[in-house]
Amino acid sequence: MADQLAQEIIDRIKPHAEPDGGEITTETELTSLGIHSLELTEIIFDIEEAYGIEIEMNTVEAWSNLKNVGDMVEAVRALIAKKA
Question: Helix (H, G, I), strand (E, B), or coil: what is residue 32?
Fold first, then answer.
C-alpha cells in the first residue's frame, strides 16, 4: 500500500500516463505508462513546485534512469528530507 507521498506522486503522474495503462502503483514501470522525457520533465517541474524542492539538471538526467514509480517516490522523499 502506498503512503501519502507515494499516492500524491502517483496522482501527479496519472495525467501524463497512457489512459489504458491500468492502476498505477509504486511497482509500475515508468516506461509501461508511456511516459517519455517531455512528460517526465513536466512531472518533475510539478513535483518541484508542489514540494518546494529543487531538482538540478544533472539530477533530471539521473531521474531519466528511474525504473518505476517507487524509485521516483524515494528520490523525492530524499530531496524533501535534505531540505528539512
Answer: helix
